[in-house]
Amino acid sequence: MEEILHYENITFKREGREILKGINWHINKGENWALLGLNGSGKSTLLGMIPAYNFPTSGEMRVFGHKFGNYAWTKIRDRVGFVSSTLNNFLSTLNSEKLEDVVISGKFNSIGIYQEVTEKDRIKAEKIIEDFGITYIKDKYFATLSQGEQRRTLLARAFMNEPDLLILDEPCSGLDVKSREYLLSVLEKNSKNENAIPFIYVTHQIEEVIPAITHITLLKDGKVFAKGRKKDILTDKILSEMFEMPIKIVWENERPWLIVK
Ligand SMILES: Nc1ncnc2c1ncn2[C@@H]1O[C@H](COP(=O)(O)OP(=O)(O)OP(=O)(O)O)[C@@H](O)[C@H]1O
Asked: Is the entire prediction scored with pTM above 0.80?
């Protein structure tokens, strides 16, 4: 099995507080994981270690089999695609970026384009833009797009670099049902490709656990509360304990729907 990500006994301490408390989590190729947890449980801190925004206080992290601390980490960063509302908000403040350029900038993992764009890059971007259903707005400025269009653009941007791992941090937050379902359908479609890109999906909405997601990690107070195959984890019992309230899960069209009892 090809290893994608490995956290072993990871801790993270700040200001005398233990924010992550001995995290063990292993991801292999062929798996797509959702990471769920209450606000402040440590999800962003944990995933922020992959591009080295945060460093573990102790423990071992390997990405694509390379150990953090023993490897030129920019090479790892270049192999990981990100979609987050922070990136979305930042790009929205720039008024000079056109949709097509935002997608192309994914190739360089940069905000803005500072390197030569080849004809091949443009053709590739056009194909991705088409796959994501945003050709009709490709010449528009990113800042003028709706939130749904902006998220689709960011997902397209993440695909431009053909990453080996996608980190999707609440990609559907703020989207209406139609835009959300469109984005999820693109992701579902990608997972059926021969060259599907593995992803980690952070969300507060259990309904967003699409069939392509195979595994779940639940994080609570900086610890792994439960992890494993999604049908073993998304149960009434585990979720009621996790959220400390009575919860019922109904599976419909291979997706879980949450009811508060
Ligand atoms: N560099 C830091 N210094 C101090 N505290 C930090 C630092 N980074 C994270 N924290 C704290 O760690 C805790 C976990 O934050 P984190 O953003 O990882 O949670 P989260 O699960 O992603 O939350 P949310 O669902 O609200 O996005 C929070 O209490 C946060 O304030």
From this structure: yes
